[in-house]
Amino acid sequence: IMERLLEQRDEIKFCVKLSKTGKETHNMIKEAYGDAAMGRSGVFGWHKLFREGRERVEDDDRSRRPSTSKTNENVSRVENLLNCDRRMSVRMIADDLSIPQTQVFEMVKENLAMRKVCTMFVPRVLSEEQKANRKAIFQDLLHQVNEEPDFLDNTAKKHCLCPPNHRQQLAAAP
Fold it and tell me: How far apart, in whole angstroms, are the C-alpha atoms of residue 122 and residue 73?
């Protein structure tokens, strides 16, 4: 396919040297190549370039950016940010790491197997490390409840997120 395009560009260049118009050139290309002919805008675009002095029929080299930002390094960077603060949004992560939001979303969903619940990213399935950590926390809480029967009542009164007057009522309660 590329050879056929280069061949047609050569023909367009030849027509320009013969002082043919863009329309004449397009008609000749259509007649010679039929269904495989370049489109009208392509013929006119190349005709203009050759008329302005271009000599090469090959495409210009382009500076290409990486096709994806989903590298193992970036997945690790996203994971580290989420481990520090699970409340970070995809937009915040993308801004911090200079990665497109769509790529961050795919990394979180596919590579890290997480989803957004309320305002936090949570793992769909806990890792062994997370399971062990939770088990240790709950065993510690269970130990404190067994040692001090009023532990939960006292903790609820200390950390209540209720309005101040309600806290006073709780504190006064037996």
Answer: 21
d(CA 100, CA 97): 9
Please check whether residue 25 is in contact with residue 47, taking contact to mean a CB–CB distance below 8 angstroms: yes
pLDDT band at residue 44 using 50, 70 and 90 as cut-offs: very high
Cα angle for residues 105, 107, 111 (degrees, 5° grid):
140
Euclidean distance between CA atoms 162 and 113, whole angstroms: 35
Bridge partners of residue 114, in order along the sequence: 123
Cβ neighbours of residue 129 under 8 Å, at least 6 residues apart?
A: none
Q: What would the CATH number be for the domain defined by 72-123?
A: 1.10.10
- Delimiting residues of CATH 1.10.10.1450 domain(s) in the chain: 2-51
DSSP string, 1-44: -HHHHHHHHHHHHHHHHTT--HHHHHHHHHHHHGGGSPPHHHHH
Give the separation between CA 114 and CA 173, rounded to whole angstroms.
42
State pLDDT tens for residues 145-158: 888 878 777 665 55
Query: Which fold does the domain 2-51 belong to in CATH?
Result: Arc Repressor Mutant, subunit A (1.10.10)
Ramachandran region, residue 85 (left: φ > 0; alpha: ψ -120 to 50; beta: rest): beta
